[in-house]
Write a structure and sequence with these properties.
Layout (H helix, E strand, L loop, with lengths): L1 H42 L4 H161 L5 H223 L2 E5 L2 E7 H4 L3 E8 L5 E6 L4 H4 E2 L2 E2 L2 E5 L6 H15 L17 H4 L3 E6 L9 H13 L2 H17 L2 E6 L25 E7 L1 H4 L11 E8 L2 H12 L7 H14 L9 H13 L12 H16 L27 H15 L9 E2 L1 H4 L5 H10 L2 E4 L8 E4 L2 H14 L3 H12 L3 H4 L1 H10 L1 H14 L4 H17 L11 E4 L4 H9 L7 E5 L6 H5 L3 E4 L8 E5 L3 E5 L10 E5 L19 E5 L3 E3 H11 L6 E14 L2 E5 L3 E8 L3 E5 L5 H6 L7 E5 L10 H10 L5 E5 L5 H5 L8 E5 L5 E2 L3 H9 L6 E7 L3 H5 L8 E5 L6 H7 L8 E6 L13 E6 L2
Parallel strand pairs: 7-10, 7-11, 8-9, 9-10, 15-16, 16-18, 17-20, 18-21, 19-20, 19-22, 21-23, 22-23, 26-27, 27-28, 28-29, 29-31, 30-31, 31-32, 32-33, 33-34
Antiparallel strand pairs: 1-2, 3-4, 3-11, 5-6, 12-14, 13-14, 23-24, 23-25, 25-26
Helix pairs in contact: 1-2, 1-3, 2-3, 3-6, 11-12, 11-13, 13-14, 14-17, 15-18, 18-21, 19-22, 21-22, 21-23, 22-23
């Protein structure tokens, strides 16, 4: 019943737990499904198979759990049956083990008792045997040691005696040997001495034959000394042998006695030790024998007692064991009965207890089963949870693996997509360049008439510019290859700048480079160019991409990356694809080799508030990207563009072969094939030469314009108006306007042209109102406050200046170009060319001259160096309205600073343009003049109207190569009105400095004329150069002595210092209007100062220089020579000069070494103050007498200072009797103090004395002396 109830209970529990487990499994399954759902949302369709596999694994997990539960249930039952069987078997085994252990215990006690008895008996017998053996061994060891001690003593005694005998014998033998050796050595020495004496005697006899009787005496003395020495040595040897023999015998006797005494003492000690050891051995043997006997007796007694005791104990044990055996049998019989009773009773109890235990065990097992089921349930839940987690992890891993696979596939796809995108981008870029950059207009007259750049391109004249360490830029070799752009001496150039004047071909060169790159990246490239220049296209095809950016279309933008997006990507791709291409652009820039071409840096303007000199290249890695920039030269002169930022600077100077270029143009535009190309090319060449347009042939833009205009009028037999830029651009303007209005009308006396260059046009008068409106816009845009919209603007800004109809006319005529941008409502507009805008702006200024003061003056004040930016406007204005140009030149001259000679080139170009347009009243303002053989003629004309404004005049002419020099007798620069001139520099042998009074004819091409009051005479009159500060005459410049004398006479009257450097200057003298002759080239650095002071240093002894200074109003003169010595060869000339200086009161002379001519030139002067010394410390005085004579002649001298090395008494004699009031005698030493003491009292007027001494002495001083300064050298 109990068992049935337990089974029912277990079944219910199992069902309950199974339901619970199924519920948990369902929850786990739901959780897994939810997570799988999330995984499905991530992996989508590609992870459906993984989801199905996971569900299958979940079903397998459920089945596995069920089978595990069934197996556990069966195992529980089998374990319960096995437990009962094990209890029965263990009870039976326990009873059997108790019986066997009782029997084994009794047998073990018996065996151990018998073994202990046998061990006691054996140990007693072994003890006795060990005592006997040890006693016997002790006696034997004592006997052996005693015998060994006696033998060792005998041996040592015998050995001692033998050693003493042997040593005694050896001592005697050694003494005998040494005695014998001593005798032999004495014999040998004696014999040797006799031989030496004989040999020396023999030699002496031979030498005595040639000597005096002194030789015989010396031999006798030496022989006697030898015999004495031998006797003494023999006697000493015998005494030493005797003493050594006696000492040896005494030492042997003492050692023998000591040996015997030691043997006796050792023998006595040995006998005593043996006796004591024998006595101790006997005592020890007696003791051990007595102890052995006692031990044996006690052991024997103990053995007997032990045997008797053991026999009695054995008998007692046998009796007790017999009695115990009987008792044990009785007990065992009784115990057997009791055990049977007990076992029967225990069996009954065991059956009852087992039944009770079985019931308890069933209850316990039931409880344990429940606990196990609970634990298994928990384990199952944990396993389910673990498997759920593992499933989730596997899902995560699967998701991650899937994502990684997706990422890998994505990367692979991305790489493929990237390569595909790169190729597509390159293809589109090549197509874009082929459509927009590879075709250039044949002429700016007609932008639609474009040709392939390879058909009309002419090789440019491209030269490398080297930037020196001091910043100087020097043109070097011509560049002929692309590689030379990007590499300099195998060093990679990252930043390349190509500069050139307007129209020189910068943009065309950049377009040709892009075309060569595009042409090489097409599937079927064209055949290579026959031109050997720039044919190394592989040098540019190393760039995976070339990005061409027009900076004029991005004014106000600072980022090149933004420009590429707007000008290239936005043009090539639709709005939907632009964001993707922007990202691809960033990736390309980081990965591929790229070249960015920035065209027209001078047309780019940074936004307000920005100090950038050029657009930023942010985002372009230095190792992957190179930059090529084109610009006008003035832009690269900006100080913000550092020399260190330029890796390679090049200048393009137009086309290398104009004739070849003209043939290419003609080949493209001639429609009549019957006309001979060669003949027409020759006609154009003659036309250009006749019209003096050769300079324009090096500008591709202007040259193409001339050719196209000439070809357009070839059938009408028309001619170009002159060779001026204004005429050329007037022709261009008319040609463009003709496209918008073909009506003709001429300017005449009733309707005069607004400017002279319009007079021959026929298409401008009908549309003059439109031209005026567009010119107004060109001016106000060019000079607007917002510079970022001055070149490129929009419709809104343009509407401020022109109407819609006027704008339509400009677009139709081609004066304006309109480009579509990203925002259709904000198109970019610009003039067809910046020069066109500048020309129209100049035309507007010519019609409204007040704008110079009202607008342009403020514009120049707001912007630093803006005069460079408007230089082309000024040049055009010179040809259109010279009056307005004159006013503008004054304003520009006021605002230019630091770059005066750049401004001069602008003025020169404006002057030439005015002359070509037959302008009158040319009064262009210029204050700094730099003249050379290239601009001599133009600058001479500009100078004539600017003498009162000139501040600097620098003339350099070495060779007579200028055409102006050959066309006229000479070029003259008159300085008569140069009231503001500060600097005058003359260099070159072709220059003559003369005064206006001289009528001498000269073959010198350049004359610099100084004004004098009375012409025709070599008189000395001051010049009117009140502001002059620096004069430089160098490199064989020839000067008349009268002009120089007039110059210095004027300089002495100024209230400031003037520095005049004369180097290799040839001074001529004029007499009766003829050049009498010239002195050797003169060198001197002369400084004039206030109060008529003249300082001359670094001079040579030139008669020309002394004659120039003759008679001038000089009050203080300093002659300082920087050479080692001043050799005055022209004493008379120098003396005449010094004598002619009637107002001279102070004379300073500083030279290292003197010369007699120098001192002779000083004789008889009326100077009051004189100082003589060396250039650094003191003067090396070599001609004392000459100086003394000169000093004695200076009767008016009041102050004298002399600093010389080594004073001479003759020098002091020269000052006897002079009225000197102040005297300074310097130098490193005063060697003639006696003479000094005698000379000083003779100076009756002396009030102040300064003297330098080595040691202080008592000097006799004059009574008139008031101040005394003595300096002692240590």
């Amino acid at each position: 019943m109990l068992k049935l109830w337990a089974n029912v209970f277990l079944r219910r529990q199992k069902e309950h737990w199974l339901k619970f487990l199924m519920k948990r499994l369902c929850l786990g399954s739901n959780a897994l499904k939810r997570r799988l759902g999330l995984g499905n949302s991530v992996l989508k369709v590609r992870h459906m198979l993984d989801n199905n596999a996971l569900k299958a694994k979940q079903n397998l997990g459920n089945n596995a759990l069920k089978s595990i539960y069934t197996m556990e249930k069966n195992a529980l039952k089998s374990k319960q049956n096995l437990g009962e069987e094990r209890i029965e078997s263990k009870t039976h085994i326990g009873e059997e083990r108790i019986d066997s252990k009782t029997h084994l215990g009794e047998e073990s006690i018996e065996s151990k008792t018998h073994l202990e008895e046998e061990r006691i008996a054996s140990k007693t017998h072994l003890g006795e045997e060990r005592i006997e053996s040890k006693t016997h061994l002790g006696e034997e060891r004592i006997e052996g040691k005693t015998h060994l001690g006696e033998e060792r003593i005998e041996i040592k005694t015998h050995l001692g005696e033998e050693r003493i005998d042997s040593k005694t014998h050896l001592g005697e033998e050694r003494i005998e040997i040494k005695t014998h050796l001593g005798e032999e050595r004495i014999e040998k020495k004696t014999h040797h001495g006799e031989e030496l004496i004989d040999s020396k005697t023999h030699l002496g006899e031979e030498r005595i034959e040639s000597k005096t009787h002194l030789g015989d005496e010396r031999i006798e003395s030496k022989t006697h000394l030898g015999e004495d020495r031998i006797d003494s040595k023999t006697h000493l040897g015998e005494e030493r042998i005797e003493s050594k023999t006696h000492l040896g015998e005494e030492r042997i006797a003492s050692k023998t006695q000591l040996g015997e005494e030691r043997i006796e003492s050792k023998t006595h000690l040995g006998e005593e030790r043996i006796a004591s050891k024998t006595h101790l051995g006997e005592e020890r043997i007696e003791k051990k024998t007595h102890l052995g006997e006692e031990h044996i007796a006690s052991n024997t007694h103990l053995g007997v007692e032990c045997i008797e005791r053991k026999t009695h104990i054995g008998e007692e044990r046998i009796y007790s064991k017999t009695h115990l055996g009987e008792e044990r049998i009785e007990i065992k019989t009784h115990l057997g009965d009791e055990r049977i009773e007990n076992k029967t009773h225990l069996g009954e109890k065991r059956i009852d207890s087992k039944t009770h235990l079985g019931e308890k065990r069933i209850e316990i097992k039931t409880h344990l089963g429940e606990e196990r089921i609970e634990s298994k349930t928990q384990l199952g839940e944990q396993r389910i949870e673990t498997k759920t987690n593992l499933g989730e992890q596997r899902i995560e891993y699967t998701v991650q693996d899937g994502m990684m696979r997706l990422q890998y596939a994505s990367n692979t796809t991305a790489q493929v997509d990237y390569e595909r995108g790169v190729e597509d981008f390159r293809r589109r870029l090549v197509e874009h360049y082929n459509d927009n950059s590879s075709n250039v207009p044949l002429s700016i007259l007609d932008q639609s008439l474009d040709k392939r750049i390879s058909d009309i391109y002419a090789t440019p004249e491209l030269k490398r510019i080297e930037i020196a360490k001091d910043g100087t830029r020097v043109k070097k070799e011509q560049i002929l290859k692309y590689k030379e752009l990007f590499y300099t001496e195998n060093k990679s150039n990252r930043r390349i700048y190509v500069q050139g004047e307007p129209g020189s071909g910068k943009s065309t060169f950049a377009a040709k480079l892009v075309h060569d790159w595009s042409d090489g990246n097409q599937p079927s490239s064209a055949a290579p160019s026959k031109n050997s220049m720039f044919d190394d296209v592989l040098a540019i095809r190393k760039f995976k991409f070339i990005f061409f950016v027009s900076l004029r279309d991005s004014r106000g933008h600072t980022d090149v990356m933004h420009m590429i997006k707007k000008q290239l990507i936005d043009t090539m791709y639709s709005e939907q694809k632009r964001d993707v291409m922007y990202m691809l652009l960033y990736q390309i820039i980081e990965t591929e080799m790229c070249l960015v071409v920035r065209d027209g840096l001078d047309e780019w303007m940074a936004p307000d508030g920005s100090n950038l000199a050029e657009p930023s290249m942010a985002g372009f890695p230095n190792d992957k990207c190179a930059v090529l920039t084109t610009s006008r030269p003035w832009k690269l002169a900006d100080e913000r563009i550092k020399n260190s930022q330029i890796d390679n600077l090049l200048e393009i100077e137009g086309i290398a072969n104009p004739y070849k270029f003209s043939k290419k143009i003609l080949r493209c535009i001639l429609l009549d094939d019957s006309k001979d190309l060669q003949t027409i090319a020759n006609d154009i060449s003659k036309f250009i030469s006749k019209r003096k347009l050769t300079s324009l042939s090096y500008s591709p833009m202007l040259f193409a314009l001339v050719i196209c205009t000439w070809v357009d009028t070839i059938d009408e037999e028309e001619h170009l108006n002159g060779s001026s830029l204004c005429s050329l651009w007037a022709t261009l303007l008319e040609s463009l306007c003709k496209k918008a209005n073909d009506k003709t009308s001429f300017f005449n006396d009733s309707n005069p042209p607004p400017v002279k260059c319009f007079s021959s046009t026929s298409y401008l008068r009908p549309i003059l109102q439109n031209v005026n409106a567009i010119s107004n816009a060109a001016f106000h845009l060019l000079f607007s406050h917002e510079q970022d919209t001055s070149i490129v603007f929009n419709d809104r800004i343009l509407s401020n200046y022109i109407s819609e109809s006027e704008k339509e006319f400009a677009l139709k005529a081609g004066l304006l170009s309109k480009r579509k941008t990203k925002k259709a409502s904000n198109a970019s507009i610009s003039f067809i060319h910046k020069s066109m805008q500048e020309y129209l702006a100049a035309y507007h200024i010519a019609q409204n001259a007040h704008l110079v003061d009202d607008v342009i003056s403020g514009y120049l004040s707001r912007h630093k160096d803006a005069y460079l930016d408007i230089s082309q406007v000024f040049i055009f204005l010179c040809g259109l309205n010279i009056s307005a140009a004159n006013t503008l030149s004054v304003v520009m001259n006021e605002h230019c600073s630091g770059m005066m000679y750049s401004y001069q080139s602008i003025i020169e170009a404006g002057y030439r343009e005015a002359v070509l347009n037959e302008q009158t009243g040319i009064l262009l303002r210029l204050s700094h003049f730099r003249v050379d053989k290239n601009n001599l003629g133009d600058v001479q004309c500009i100078w004539a109207d600017n003498t009162s404004n000139a501040q600097v005049l620098e003339v350099t002419v070495y060779e007579e190569t200028d055409p102006v020099i050959h066309s006229s007798h000479h070029v003259e620069f008159n300085l008569s009105s140069c009231h503001k001139l500060k600097t005058l520099k003359l260099h070159g042998r072709c220059i003559l400095l003369k005064d206006s009074s001289s009528s001498v004819s000269s073959a010198h091409p350049v004359l610099i004329v100084l004004n004098t009051a009375d012409s025709g005479q070599c008189s000395d009159h001051p010049l009117v150069l009140p502001c002059i500060q620096h004069i430089e005459l160098d490199a064989d410049v020839k000067c008349s002595s009268t002009s120089l004398r007039s110059l210095f006479n004027m300089l002495l009257t100024l209230d400031h210092e003037v520095l005049c450097n004369i180097k290799d200057c040839e001074i001529t003298s004029c007499v009766e209007d003829k050049v009498r002759g010239s002195s050797a080239n003169t060198q001197a650095n002369i400084t004039t100062g206030v109060n008529n002071t003249l300082h001359i240093s670094g001079f040579n002894d030139s008669t020309g220089l002394w004659k120039v200074l003759h008679g001038l109003n000089i009050k203080s003169l300093s002659l300082i020579d920087t050479h080692e010595s001043l050799n005055v060869n022209h004493t008379e000339s120098l003396n005449q000069l010094l004598s002619s200086l009637t107002n001279l009161t102070t004379l300073y002379i500083k030279v290292n070494n003197d010369s007699p001519g120098l001192w002779e030139a000083l004789r008889g002067l009326n100077v009051k103050v004189m100082s003589l010394g060396g250039l650094y410390l003191c003067l090396n005085l070599n001609h004392v007498d000459s100086l003394a004579q000169s000093l004695s002649s200076l009767k008016h001298l009041e102050t004298l200072s002399i600093d010389v090395y080594g004073h001479n008494p003759g020098l002091l004699n020269g000052i006897h009797g002079l009225n000197i009031k102040s005297l300074k005698l310097g130098g490193m030493a005063m060697n003639h103090l006696e003479s000094l003491s005698k000379s000083l009292p003779l100076l009756k007027q002396l009030e102040t004395l300064s003297i330098y001494l080595k040691t202080y002495i008592d000097i006799q001083l004059p009574q008139s002396l008031k101040y005394l300064n003595i300096y002692c050298f240590v």
